[in-house]
Amino acid sequence: MDKTNNQGTEDESRSDWAELTHECLINILARLSLEHRWRGMLVCKSWLHSCKDPSINSVFVLEPEPDSARWWTPDLGRMVDSILRSVADWSDGSLREIRTRNCSNLSLSFVAHRCPKLEVLSIKSCPNVTDASMADIAFRCPMIKELDISYCHEISHESLVLIGRNCPDLTILKRNAMNLLDPSEHAGIVPDEYLKTCPQDGNSEAASIGKSMPNLKHLELRFSKVTAKGLALISAGCPNLEYLDLFGCVNLTSRDIDNATSELKNLKDVKKPNFYIPRSVFHTERYGHWRLYDERFQTDVFRI
């Protein structure tokens, strides 16, 4: 008897949820993360229909934990592509922000053709994104204001030129590289083969930034191979910079940075390449004397 009553209560509860108005469902679903909404689609047809409403598909955020190796697998990449394509389709052109990892050219080109109002594109750690899809983004999404292509090794300086020329509102660029000075940071997470493909010519990218992105205010180049020459090109071409992150840029001295940024009147914060390198791995043949090492990195933590 009790079991029958409990069953009836459960049926009534399910019925109540299924009979919520579309407006109420939208209000509820808009407060959930993408992962939770994706599960919510399985509840019933009305929930599925509401999850496809353009008003709750203007933002796509699907980012893994930074120490999760499973997010580098092809299967997870295909899943991210599938979800991103679906959200782009449901947004009916209203998708304005994307923050994800491990997507590919397939989904990005789809986004470029469907979402011309895109303003924020953050695709860190995407080994299968190349210049091809970035060209689509550059030509079809001119409203881009923020771009994060950190750790995307198949994207070259050519994409930076296209984005800069076709997206005049771009003010934030993040092009950070992986810390190859301490490989243990990525051990067991990032595939070794991918680490070996890290871009080495920081000055080509610096020249592209300086030549095509005059309105930049925020620039991150952590662990870039850029030298004093490249930094000078950036400073000359981006006079409105307010924030500059050069942490881990071993080819820059504190003096190089001071000289290159002296004319940037709006610059408020500079992150210099201060980090610890044990003497055991310090290349004296490159820097000469230990005092030159201290001069290059300008930090007090090297007191071993």
TrEMBL record:
<protein>
    <recommendedName>
        <fullName>F-box domain-containing protein</fullName>
    </recommendedName>
</protein>
<dbReference type="InterPro" id="IPR001611">
    <property type="entry name" value="Leu-rich_rpt"/>
</dbReference>
<dbReference type="InterPro" id="IPR032675">
    <property type="entry name" value="LRR_dom_sf"/>
</dbReference>
<dbReference type="Pfam" id="PF00646">
    <property type="entry name" value="F-box"/>
</dbReference>
<dbReference type="InterPro" id="IPR006553">
    <property type="entry name" value="Leu-rich_rpt_Cys-con_subtyp"/>
</dbReference>
<dbReference type="InterPro" id="IPR036047">
    <property type="entry name" value="F-box-like_dom_sf"/>
</dbReference>
<dbReference type="Pfam" id="PF13516">
    <property type="entry name" value="LRR_6"/>
</dbReference>
<feature type="domain" description="F-box">
    <location>
        <begin position="17"/>
        <end position="56"/>
    </location>
</feature>
<dbReference type="InterPro" id="IPR001810">
    <property type="entry name" value="F-box_dom"/>
</dbReference>
